[in-house]
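Recall the central idea of this unit: under ordinary conditions, the amino acid sequence of a chain determines the structure it adopts. In this exercise we apply that idea directly, starting from the sequence alone.
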Amino acid sequence: MRARKQIESHGLVLASMHLPLSSAGIQHQVWPNIMLGTPERDKDIDLVIKSIRAAGQAGIKTLCYNLALLPVVRTGETIGRNGVRYSHFDYRNLLAEEPLCGRELDPEVLWERIAYYIERVMPAAEEAGVRLACHQHDPGLPEGIIYRGVPRVLGSLAGVRRFLSLSDSPSHGLNFCQGTIAEMCSDPSKSTYQAIREFASAVRIFWVHFRNIRGGLGCFDEVFPDEGDIDMRRALRTYRDCGYDGVIVPDHMPCIDGDTPQAHIARAYCFGYIRGLLAEV
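Accordingly, the structure predicted from this sequence is:
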């Protein structure tokens, strides 16, 4: 409530907050036991439910979250226009590191942990009138490639569909990261719009990370919105035409020399680009 009042005092609306289930990797999670599947996971889930109820009482209708053991995985940087540095990924350059959990995990083990969580939190979310928006695993990997013994079960369109099938609750949906969706497609310039259409039409998109990439499955750069392989104007029209009326935010800024640690310059550019597209579309 304090956060909401502070934000609203500036003429803004607090549309969402993020549960402490982040993309930072299991070693930095506040509630690690949910994806580790330990006996303590029920205690962590109880805290999730308390947070959901608190959000509902504060009038915050959307909570974003991640269900991931690994952090966001990248393999370096590439140089773009005027020396801008892009986050880069090439699965062929992944280092051979020890399995995160001491062994390679069976995908069904991860699905059991995800389903266990969903089954327990969705009734509380419905009761509180709160939507839970889950982020995809960033990045997806080509078939047969497993990094640090952890399958990327939410790193494919098939995985996203299976995740959504775990509950028909109207509170169960996606923090739809357009960049991550593009990263999991061998032909993002076609499949990304189809994915937007599929999940937005099903009213399963609760939040949008509106970013662009150059490349696709297994190898890509994270670029500014106006220079990637996705036509962002077409993407925004697709959200609109499928009935999405929620928030559109930038994500993962390229690095500009002289920018702040929070990437204020790059972020302002992306916000301005999005505002311009919204006005046009």
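Residues 2-280 form a domain with the TIM Barrel fold (CATH 3.20.20.150).
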